[in-house]
Amino acid sequence: MTDLVQLLVAGLATGAIYALVAVGFTLLWQTSQTINFAQGEFVMVPAFFVLAAMKFGGASFPVALLLGLIASLLVLGVLFKKLLVDPMIRHGVLPLVISTIALALFLKEGVKEFYAADAQPFPALWATTNITVVGAVIALQNLVIIGVAIAAIAALQWFLAATRTGRSMQATAQNPLLARILGIRVERMILYTFLINAGLVALASVLISPIYLAKFSNGETLGLVAFIAAIVGGFNQVRGAIAGGLLLGVLDNLVAAYVSTQYRGAIPLFLLIAVILFRPQGLLGRAEERSV
Amino acid sequence: MTRARNLSRAIAALAVCAVLVAAPFGLKPYGIYLLSLWAVMTIAAMGLNLTLGYAGQISLAQAAFVGIGAYTAAILTTQGWPFALAFLLSAALCFAIGWLLGYPALRVQHHYLAFVTLAFTTLVFLVLRNEEWLTRGIYGISGIPRPDVLGWSTGAPRDYYFFCLGMLGLVTLATGWLVRSPWGRAFMALRENPIRAASLGVDTRRYTLIAFALGSALGGIAGALYAPLVQFIDPTPFALGLSLNLLLMVIVGGSGFFFGPFLGALVSVLLPEWLRFTEGLYLLIYAAFVMALMAFCPSGLLGIAERLFRPAAKTDDPPALRARKTAP
Amino acid sequence: MSAVLEVRDLKKSFGGISAVGGVSFEVHAGEILGIIGPNGSGKSTLFNCILGQLQPSSGEVRIDGKPITGMRPCDLNRLGVSRTFQLLQVFPQLSVRENLILAGQEHQGSMGSRLLGRRDAGLTPAANRMIDFFRLASVADEKAGRLSYGQQKLLDAAMAFMAGPRLVLLDEPAGGVNPTMLADLRERLRTINAREKATFVVIEHNMEFVMSLCTRILVLAEGRLIAQGAPEAVRRDPRVIEAYFGN
């Protein structure tokens, strides 16, 4: 029983990280029709920004974190939007998708060539101690991760619902044309979405890298999980992305413990296929209209 | 005037065929291997072009189908089955799996096929790696024999190249027929304007599914030809990287253009050789090139050629990508 | 004898907004029914619900007594219903003749014959007849994208008729067409209606066009049917005048 609690907590922790990534992905899709196939690499890169700041800039860890965040916002937010998405969007969705696929390759090879091909240790924000809660021994890191992720998402939800900018962003996501007519600066809202995504992936990166080490190839698995979490939860919903991420994290950990680990990576895939077969709108989504 | 154009096209085609037939006589074994690889990859890319360029769906599973085809052929021929049978089985199996995979995924929109095929590729790789009783896992299958075609042994590099070239020719003819038939017209319609196509009675779901299943079958055929080419296979090449590579082949060549895959495969197979001096940066350069291409000319190299040589006929966007302007 | 098209209490809402609020009508064989109404009256939404592009919130649509509510557009087309589009939708990269062959090919033969049979599915004579009827012979081999707007409109209509449909829904056929071509179009539509015994339903803004083409008119305002009858009667109906011009 205590094992189960441990596994659940660990699962929720991984799931929380997946949720962060999936939420960013969903937001991008909602507001600007951008399917970011490089989302996994986006989670991989910020850790290397931080490591580079420490290695080449001699910065201390906290400073490096800040620099890494700024670099992420600039590169994965602003540059991504201005250099890749904006020129591409007039050609349609497909060229943009292809570009993000190429971008994923670019980021992956870039890190591999210009930093290192082997896995890099990444410092943690917390002490690696265990605490005991109701008789179960839980790693502190899991609680910290869950806490931080909850805080981030709660802040995001509050921002989207309670502030004027946030509500404008929601309006842009639902109906860009109408939003424009209402005087909302749609371009700026879209930029904010990209910045938010950059922030979310940077946070996810910093949370996950201490556990799984920073490696150029991390993007593949993380990206796949993000897409699946978003779809399983319900493609159009931020809530869905959160639910999907958590579900995948928990499922992944439970399966790994009780079933052979050889097919551990296949669980999200089966879940995806099951959802598409039986509930294509996702667990929390609404049934979609045929488009006119 | 069209007669003159047809004549010049026929002459160009003959010239290219002559080059392809003569080439191996002047090349070392490695060069012949590259040519054979080009032929095989073109077949796989042609399959993907059907799915993407004609039916407008992104598939990231082509590597999995090449893998399934390769392993089917390898397992059967190393057990003594005749190649022809293994070959047909590869194609049929991949068609069936493509159909089963596409059926649920294409009932919903939003590029779901892309994600399902992404997941599928990962799954197939895991199966190939883990199910050692069938595939020998990471140890791979070696000693894959090259077929005897009606008494002609294809064991030597040049002979196997001609075999691959012959298969490419057959696939080209068959695909050409398909594309010019009413099916091809329906594919084009559902790519250009699926709503209009549906209102004319074109069963968009069924045609998209057919295009995807046929594309997958071609992937299987390419795999069945790949296995005897390299004569040793293990799961490593049949992963997401190959799917992406094939996708880029189709895009770079020109998605929706019939000869796009030929050009794209050529670029992809030769690029590592040309960029060898960059020592591993070539993927980086390739990726950057693709991003630039998408920004300036999403219709690929053949699109650029079309713009240069037939400016009157151009519209802004390429065949496959024009339709996707309106996001789903 | 049941009506060719029967719409019963059709409702469609988007979120909280009711676009069509309970519309019922019948169309009988050979009629040319016009649907008019001010902007936002729900005409296009009604059309799209009938044609399967949108799922109605409630209500029923029947063709020849058979319920077709929510049927896929391609299946509906195979049942003998075709349409034209408000925003022109021909295939610009195909020639005029190819566009027509495409429009008819799914009604000929089977999937197998479409793969292994003739390239044109045997439709060249039928396509040529359509080209002659709509007087597009001079541009028959041109890419449809090169045609003038009016010619594309004619092609669009021709495509709708290729499959010999029972019921044709025309969405603003007169939109953007110059006056000389308009008379031509109207005459072509009347001729084909009489000859093929097809039934038409037309949405139109061009009052003169619709009044001179249609045998009966329906008037929609704010998602509801406010008047129906012969063109002359509807034109003089005070409720209709009020809907268009206010009080």
Give a short summary of the structure.
The complex is a heterotrimer of chains A (292), B (328) and C (247). By secondary structure, chain A is mainly α.
Walk me through this protein's architecture:
The complex is a heterotrimer of chains A (292), B (328) and C (247). Chain A contains eleven helices and two strands. By secondary structure, chain A is mostly helical. Chain A has a single domain, classed as ABC transporter involved in vitamin B12 uptake, BtuC (Orthogonal Bundle), CATH 1.10.3470. In chain A, strands 1-2 form a two-stranded antiparallel sheet. Chain B has 328 residues and is mainly alpha-helical. Chain B has a domain at 27-238. Chain B has helices at residues 2-22, 29-54, 62-78, 83-105, 112-130, 132-135, 157-180, 182-192, 194-199, 204-230, 240-253, 260-274, 282-296, 300-309, 319-322; strands spanning 141-142, 148-149, 152-153, 232-233. A two-stranded antiparallel sheet of chain B has the order 1-4. The longest helix of chain B has 27 residues, at 204-230. The N and C termini of chain C lie far apart (41 Å). The mean pLDDT of chain C is 86. The chains are: A mainly alpha (292), B mainly alpha (328), C alpha/beta (247). The B-C interface holds B 178, 180-183, 185-186, 188-189, 192-193, 195-204, 206, 313, 315, 319 and C 51, 53, 72-75, 77-78, 82-83, 85, 89-94, 98, 101-103, 105-107, 111, 114-117, 119-121, 143, 145, 159, 163.
What is this structure's SSE topology?
The complex is a heterotrimer of chains A (292), B (328) and C (247).
Chain A: H1 2-32, H2 39-57, H3 61-89, H4 93-114, E1 130-133, E2 136-139, H5 140-162, H6 164-174, H7 176-181, H8 186-212, H9 218-233, H10 238-258, H11 267-278
Antiparallel strand pairs in A: 1-2
Chain B: H1 2-22, H2 29-54, H3 62-78, H4 83-105, H5 112-130, H6 132-135, E1 141-142, E2 148-149, E3 152-153, H7 157-180, H8 182-192, H9 194-199, H10 204-230, E4 232-233, H11 240-253, H12 260-274, H13 282-296, H14 300-309, H15 319-322
Antiparallel strand pairs in B: 1-4, 2-3
Helix pairs in contact in B: 2-7, 2-10, 2-11, 2-12, 3-4, 3-5, 3-10, 4-10, 7-8, 8-10, 11-12, 11-14
Chain C: E1 5-14, E2 17-27, E3 32-36, H1 43-50, E4 58-63, E5 66-67, H2 73-78, E6 81-83, H3 96-105, H4 111-116, H5 124-133, H6 149-161, E7 167-171, H7 179-196, E8 199-203, H8 207-213, E9 216-221, E10 224-229, H9 231-236, H10 238-245
Parallel strand pairs in C: 3-8, 3-9, 6-7, 7-8
Antiparallel strand pairs in C: 1-2, 1-4, 4-5, 9-10
